[in-house]
């Protein structure tokens, strides 16, 4: 798995505001979208295109267009949903599939409670969205799921990652033949005893949408 940490002052500035516990929910949502759009620019560097020529008012201009099958964007519910709009803004013609996952707060194991994806993802490039990579269990499960259905190129976009989660992803995905890239705004210090990223930003889902039961 290739790791790309996006080193850009605007990303760092927005991430700092996002982390602040005094940032309210509407601002948190807006910053999340803005950050994703910036990360997506880097994350879509390998998106597949094909030659396409268009007529300008002056002459024919050779260019490119996104290749079929269209890329698939997969937000991991709940918190990943906050990243969808920012991603769609950059790649509006991508298709969207959904996976719903929640971590068991004691065992930290992910539980999949929803899935709405094509059964056949052969030849598809997939962009998985989840703001937080903590133990790596949720993201690795989602990636495996997509690869099992035939996806042949996976890019994960996260806002924050813990070193433990990156190591775990590498371990769990080691035998996959499919190229996998992780694009993040920052790699934080560590996980705490509750599996939260330190210093992190708290519970991304709660900060986006309010406290869940
Ligand atoms: O790397 P992991 O240890 O698996 O943890 C990360 C997961 O935890 C959070 O979701 P959560 O379970 O809080 O669900 P939510 O999105 O509904 O808040 C986060 O959005 C990731 O999906
Ligand atoms: O720090 C963390 C870890 C998992 N999920 C979150 O939302 N935040
Ligand atoms: Mg949560």
Automatic annotation (TrEMBL):
Allosterically activated by GTP. GO terms for cellular component: cytoplasm. It comes from the Bacteria. CDD domains: PRTases_typeI. It catalyses: UMP + diphosphate = 5-phospho-alpha-D-ribose 1-diphosphate + uracil. This is Uracil phosphoribosyltransferase. One of its GO terms (molecular function) is GTP binding. Belongs to the UPRTase family. Uracil binds at residues 197, 202-204. Keywords: Allosteric enzyme, Glycosyltransferase, GTP-binding, Magnesium, Nucleotide-binding, Transferase. 5-phospho-alpha-D-ribose 1-diphosphate binds at residues 78, 103, 130-138, 203. Gene3D superfamilies: 3.40.50.2020. Catalyzes the conversion of uracil and 5-phospho-alpha-D-ribose 1-diphosphate (PRPP) to UMP and diphosphate. Pfam families: UPRTase. Residues 5-210 form the Phosphoribosyltransferase domain. It comes from Naumannella cuiyingiana. GO terms for biological process: UMP salvage; uracil salvage. Binds 1 Mg(2+) ion per subunit. The magnesium is bound as Mg-PRPP. Its cofactor is Mg(2+). Its EC number is 2.4.2.9. Pathway: Pyrimidine metabolism; UMP biosynthesis via salvage pathway; UMP from uracil: step 1/1.
